[in-house]
Amino acid sequence: MRLPGGVGLIILDNLCKSYGSGKHAVTVIDHVSMEVTKGEIFGIIGQSGAGKSTLLRCVNLLARPDSGSVTVGGVELTRLNTRELQAQRRKIGMIFQHFNLLSTLTARDNVAFPLRLEGLSRQEIRRRADELLEMVGMSAHADKYPAQLSGGQKQRIGIARALAGRPDVLLCDEATSALDQETTRSVLALLQDINRKLGVTILLVTHEIEVVRAICDRVAVMQRGQIVESGRTADLLLRPGHPATRELLRQTEDPDGGDASGSDAGGTIIRVLYSGDSAGKPALSEAVRGTSVQFVILHGTVSRIRDVPYGRMTIRLTGPSGETASVISRLREQGWEVETPDVL
Ligand SMILES: Nc1ncnc2c1ncn2[C@@H]1O[C@H](COP(=O)(O)OP(=O)(O)OP(=O)(O)O)[C@@H](O)[C@H]1O
User: Fold this and answer.
1) Most informative mutation of 27, 28, 211 for ligand 1 (most atoms within 8 A of CB)
2) Rounded to the nearest whole angstrom, what is the distance from the C-alpha of residue 50 to the centroid of ligand 1?
3) Are 208 and 39 in contact (CB under 8 A)?
4) Which atom of ligand 1 is nearest to the CA of 53?
5) Atom 25, ligand 1: which residue's CA is nearest?
6) What number does CATH give the domain 263-339?
7) Which among 10, 141, 178, 219 is least surrounded, fewest beta carbons within 10 Å?
8) What's the angle, vertex CA 33, arms to CA 210 and CA 199, rounded to 5?
9) What is the per-residue DSSP string for 15-44?
10) How far apart (Å, rounded) are the C-alpha atoms in residues 316 and 144?
11) SS3 81
């Protein structure tokens, strides 16, 4: 089935999947529908056991949904026979948490492995494998075996192998979960580069909010087999609507983040959030101008999620209550979101 242009490159429609049968059946994917647009990096995040890996494996039918349909690039994979499915799977690369390299093959031969199925000449296979190794910065390690490589290097080889068939889509299953922070950053930068330079659409699953924050354009939150919330990364992380999203964020928050430390010193403690256009304005100094209200920033983060700048701060305002209330109104007029104590 071909779909008209302008729709999602990956379309999951009402997917359900359970493991086991009868009274032992466990629902792992529960009526999931979602679309991934061509060219984006889309993240699926959730706690362990939420069903993320199973959902990802449904995209290339490594896991078969019990019902619902999977469409990639306009082709409904759930309708194909085995031979047709094999051909379509070449357009979908995949990388794994534990890399899944063949230990008896060198890095170059691991990358070349999928190319052997394409009936290319030896020279052509070698040329293409070396090109891929160069792309992932691994040319110097081409003749090493996986046991001689670090985790980050193994994942680079995994990425090169996944790109061998020039896929439109790259599925990433906890691709950085076995890596330290610095290596994670470099592998994420490589994935972003591949997305930008080759136009490969990336669908990744992770339990790490930092991965989503670093590279995802959009994100869906999964809980107990369902997608409970989805949206643009900055929107979702700055204004989480669902308790599952808030819980994921709470786990990574700076422990001092919500602390109104210094509240004993009097005044009114407010928490503010600004993002996008409101981020460039000197709103705070303008809001207190002409009043006797003074402010102290007790805690703050000024950062960026993808291309959206934002700031989140805890501020103590000191001054007459009427003037403090008017400072808060002015901040709101500037597009700041302000949480106040109940007394105001
Ligand atoms: N092949 C299988 N047979 C039986 N149960 C399975 C199978 N694969 C996954 N499950 C179960 O399905 C549920 C979801 O697993 P899944 O790996 O998709 O979750 P996840 O969100 O990716 O979690 P994690 O990050 O821990 O892998 C779990 O309860 C798991 O035990």
Assistant:
1) 28
2) 7
3) no
4) 22
5) 48
6) 3.30.70.260
7) 178
8) 55
9) EEEEES-GGG-EEEEEEEEEEE-TT-EEEE
10) 58
11) coil
Please choose from 21, 30, 44, 52 the residue to mutate so as to test ligand 1's pocket, defined by most ligand atoms within 8 A of CB: 52
ipTM of this predicted structure: 0.94
308-318 β-sheet, strand order: 294-305, 308-318, 268-275, 337-339
57 CA: nearest ligand 1 atom:
18
CATH tag for 10-252 (out of 3.60.15.10, 3.30.450.20, 3.40.640.10, 3.40.50.300): 3.40.50.300
pLDDT of the chain, 344 residues: tens digit per residue = 344 444 689 999 999 999 998 888 999 999 999 999 999 999 999 999 999 999 999 999 999 999 999 999 999 999 999 999 999 999 999 999 999 999 999 999 999 999 988 888 999 999 999 999 999 999 999 999 999 999 999 999 999 999 999 999 999 999 999 999 999 999 999 999 999 999 999 999 999 999 999 999 999 999 999 999 999 999 999 999 999 999 998 877 655 444 544 545 678 999 999 998 888 788 888 999 999 999 999 988 888 888 888 998 999 999 998 999 999 999 999 889 998 875 44
Tell me which residues have their CB closer than 6 angstroms to ligand 1.
19, 28, 46, 48-54, 207
Report the residue count for the chain.
344
Domain-by-domain residue ranges, the chain?
10-252, 263-339
